[in-house]
Specification:
Number of strands: 6
GO biological process, one term: IMP biosynthetic process
CATH topology of the largest domain: Fumarase C, Chain A, domain 2
Organism: Candidatus Gottesmanbacteria bacterium RIFCSPHIGHO2_01_FULL_46_14
Number of helices: 19
Pfam family, one: ASL_C
CATH architecture of the largest domain: Up-down Bundle
Shape: elongated
CATH superfamily of the largest domain: Fumarase/aspartase (Central domain)
Radius of gyration: 30 Å
GO molecular function: N6-(1,2-dicarboxyethyl)AMP AMP-lyase (fumarate-forming) activity
Protein name: Adenylosuccinate lyase
Length: 471
């Protein structure tokens, strides 16, 4: 008989905790049930320390501070299981944690602190601070390093192919001339613009009681400025206080964070689709790895599965984000419980995103740019130079240049001979014709290289360790 409750990836409900669990282990210290318990315990213990000192007028002794800290440091899986046991009895996860904390304080000779546990605040104050903190730290320690690797991979690719001229396609048809490096630089620049927003997002939290009115504090000590007190407490976690709340902190701040991640993912979806199309066009080759197979039935296949997998994962991430944005900001009166169910899935878009970033990095390691195929395609589509011809003719006095070229070329695929014949038929001086044919050469345009250099410089400035280590 199979034990379906066995803790193994083979019986996991999703591939996130199944076949891909090893790729996502970096998220577990932030979003596992154990991590969620321990961080809330830390917030709870810190609050107890601060309010006890404020009301007693005396800071905890060094000995008491160490004993209180040991409550957090010595919280392991066996302790988390004890909390789960309590929760089964009381049917409330935060209350179970509070009861566990109370017992732990008593065992450590800190019974005098028990009355201060969560005094004046509610469970959602603890949750608000903990949630904002784990999103902030996971951004700095997990997501940003992964996004830096993606950005550096794009930077390397666009620099390597800075002078690889190729056909630019609009509406799926040959249209003009660009470079492979410049097209990758477009994605890099867009990504950096959004990463700047993502990196700088400031997380907010509340600590204003059960309905956000600080009402319970009046029964604690009405002479204390409790907004100032709780603001200092929130800031001690590197967060910004939010005073305008109900039982829960408005989710607007968190949804703005996820909307930035949504835009990052959308930029990368666009990039993955373009890379896939370059494989289709023959501009990219997927490297063959001898020990792998590309198809169970077709032995010749070598597929761009990592771009495809990244695209699918990013779509899943963005689908979850859309649900968050649509539902979390809506709060019936002072609170309903629907947000809790959704909030417990907050790791989903982060996990799918992280998995996709890893896939993009793998995909870029598995491709080669086929410069010969790109050059051949450019050679076979000389019609892509017609906008250059048009502009040259207009500036040299041929007023009907657009209509002239439209009549001769619309819908045609031009060879080198065809283009030369068109140029030589123009009412231009011989020297001008020679100059124009020289301009219709893939080595003449300096601007794509400048665009690449601009994007690479932007990435270097943004992704330096000084600017992007956000904890």
């Amino acid at each position: 008989m199979i034990n379906w409750e066995e803790n193994t990836p083979l019986v996991a409900l999703t591939h996130l905790d199944g076949r891909n669990a090893h790729k996502l282990s970096s998220l577990r210290p932030y979003f596992s049930e154990f991590a969620w318990m321990k961080l809330r315990l830390r917030v709870m213990a810190s609050y107890t320390k601060e309010i006890a000192a404020r009301l007693s007028g005396t800071k905890l002794s060094t000995s008491d501070t160490r004993r209180l800290q040991s409550l957090i440091d010595s919280f392991f899986l066996k302790d988390a299981r004890a909390v789960v046991t309590i929760e089964k009895r009381v049917n409330h996860d935060l209350k179970a944690l509070e009861l566990y904390c109370s017992d732990s304080l008593e065992r450590r000779g800190l019974s005098r602190l028990i009355p201060y546990l969560n005094l004046g605040i509610g469970s959602e104050d603890i949750n608000s601070i903990a949630l904002a903190r784990l999103l902030k730290t996971s951004r700095g320690e997990v997501l940003i390093p992964a996004l830096k690797k993606v950005s550096f991979s794009l930077s390397d690719l666009c620099q390597k192919e800075i002078n690889t001229s190729m056909v630019a396609r609009t509406h799926a048809q040959p249209a003009n001339v660009t470079t492979f490096g410049k097209e990758v630089a477009n994605s890099l620049s867009r990504l950096c613009d959004e990463l700047e927003i993502f990196f700088s997002h400031s997380f907010t939290a509340k600590c204003s009681g059960e309905v956000g009115s600080y009402q319970a504090y009046l029964g604690v000590d009405p002479s204390v400025d409790w907004i100032a007190f709780t603001d200092r407490f929130i800031r001690s976690f590197g967060l910004t206080p939010s005073h305008h709340a109900t039982q829960i902190a408005p989710y607007d701040n968190i949804t703005r964070y996820f909307q930035s991640l949504f835009r990052i993912n959308t930029i990368l979806i666009d990039f993955c689709k373009n890379m896939w199309l370059y494989v289709l066009l023959g501009y990219l080759r997927v490297k063959k790895i001898e020990k792998e197979v590309g198809s169970a039935g077709m032995p010749h296949k070598v597929n761009p599965i990592y771009f495809e997998g990244a695209e699918g994962g990013l779509e899943m991430a963005n689908g979850s984000i859309e649900t968050f944005v649509r539902t979390l900001p809506i709060n019936r009166l002072n609170r309903d419980f629907s947000d809790s169910t959704i909030r417990r899935n907050i790791v989903l878009p982060l996990a799918y995103s992280l998995l996709s970033y890893q896939s993009i990095i793998d995909a870029l390691c598995r491709i080669e740019v086929d410069t010969e195929a790109i050059a051949t395609d450019l050679k076979n589509h000389k019609e892509v130079w017609l906008e250059t011809v048009k502009s040259y003719g207009i500036t040299h006095g041929i007023s009907d240049m657009y209509d002239r070229l439209k009549k001769e070329t619309r819908g045609r695929v031009l060879s080198a001979g065809d283009l030369e014949e068109i140029v030589r038929s123009l009412p231009l001086k011989l020297s001008d014709k020679r100059e124009l044919l020289t301009l219709c050469n893939d080595s003449q345009n300096p601007y794509p290289a400048r665009i690449v250099e601009e994007a690479v410089g932007k990435a270097k400035r943004l992704l330096s360790s000084e600017n992007s280590t956000i904890l």
